[in-house]
Amino acid sequence: MKKLFSALTLTCFTFSTALHAEEAAKLPTDPLPEATGPAVITPLQKSQPAPFAGILFSPRAAAVAGTEILNFPQRLSIEVEKAVKDVEAKKQFEYNELNTVCVSDKTQMQARIDANQKRINVLEKDLQDAQDAVPNRWAWFGLGAAAGVAVTVGTVFVVLESTK
Amino acid sequence: MFLLFLEKIWGRLRPHVPTVLITLLFVTVCYAGYLHVKKMDEGIAKKLQEMQKIHDDEVAAIKDAQKVEREQHQANIKQLQKSLEDIKTTYDAKLLELEEKKTESVNGLISTWQVDPSGVAMAKKLGEILKFNVLLPEGTK
User: Fold this and answer.
1) Tens-digit pLDDT profile for residues B105-114
2) CA atoms within 13 A on the CB side of A9
3) Residue A122: inside a domain, yes or no?
4) For residue A40, is it within any domain?
5) Is position A154 within any domain?
6) Å between A27 CA and nearest CA of chain B
7) pTM to 2 decimal places
8) What is the ipTM score, two decimals?
């Protein structure tokens, strides 16, 4: 029984593989020769048998397709030109914006520099005035000593006079 | 008589002379200090005013610059909008022109078909446009 089953299974596998191999061998190498051949266009009357398999366009569809293809470079040129001009305008805007910020910053910085320079001038003038107004320490020392002596002598004189 | 009167007055005033002199000295020193402080205050006020003017000028200049910057920003935005609008107008006009040209071309091809219903002329034209081979029926040129 086992031998019979083995023989039957072996036979099935063998024939099955052979059949698949035969099917694969029958596949055509070029199923659509019109699709891989040169581009061909042909006029065709109604009910006339077509010389090859293909896509049938109405005259208007053919005219529109032909015109679209014919004008595609011009359309592309217009689109590219628009895109380039858009980018140019945006770049010009960015340039103008940066220029504006730069000029403004420069003006503000110049205003700060001018103000600081004025402060420096004022402070330098104050410093110069202060240096010019420095008192002569020996003169003031002498004056103070003389005034002290005079006040002391005067006070002593007054006190003595008043207590006589 | 008069001398006697003066001597009597001096006798009464004599004990107060030190107090008066010291008071006068004190008042004089205080007044001198007051004048000195007043002069310093005036000088400081003048300096403050001068510094405040410098600060005000600086702030005004910065505000002017910021105002000019804002106005320039607005002008830049307007210029960009105008440029984009001009570009779009030109683009639309060119597209319209192209569409008209395409319509004329389509109509021209259709008229070819109408003149020659066999389609040979149109096929030749399309073959020329698309750079395709034209397969004509037998017996046609």
Assistant:
1) 999 999 999 9
2) 6
3) yes
4) no
5) no
6) 30
7) 0.65
8) 0.71
